Amino acid sequence: MPESLTGHLVVPVDDAEDAHATATALQAYAVEKVTAVHVVEKGGGSLDTIPLEQAEQRAEEAFEAFREVIPDANTELTYHTDVVEGVFEVATDREATAIAFHPRGGGRLTQFLSGDTALRLITDADRPVIALPDPAEGGM
Questions:
Q1: Contact, 114 vs 120, CB < 8 A?
Q2: What DSSP character marks residue 3?
Q3: How far is the C-alpha of 56 from the C-alpha of 76, rounded, in Å?
Q4: pLDDT tens, residue by residue, 55-94
Q5: Which of 124, 130, 111 is nearest to 11 (CA)?
Q6: Is 48 helix (H, G, I), strand (E, B) or coil?
Q7: So where are the chain's domains?
Q8: Distance (Å, rounded) from C-alpha 69 to C-alpha 71?
Q9: Burial of 127 by CB count in 10 Å (0-12 exposed, 13-18 middle, 19+ buried)?
């Protein structure tokens, strides 16, 4: 029998606003298990992008915002030099059936400067990736 696509979703979240928007987009769908993941990006020999304590606080606020919408969600805080690779590692460790994300806004320049995380999530994944539509823009 085929495995359920939404048996266990790993859902990356950045900050409280992103986490709330992502959870809101996800709540329209039947999902068996959800793990919200926040990756603290480490500098890999250089300075971290933000202080560790501030990054961990940002993650906790994101998890709280996600649980306001999906109270039974699991959470995972991980540290990695590459955000996308960090998400993939959590998906593998948790045996996720898919990764779901809510694409963030921003023009082409913003996407270029950020390394286009969404594109990498889709093209480099070893499991299905689901882009959630924005409910405010006519999504479910």
A1: no
A2: P
A3: 11
A4: 999 999 999 999 999 999 999 999 998 999 999 999 999 9
A5: 130
A6: coil
A7: 9-134
A8: 6
A9: middle
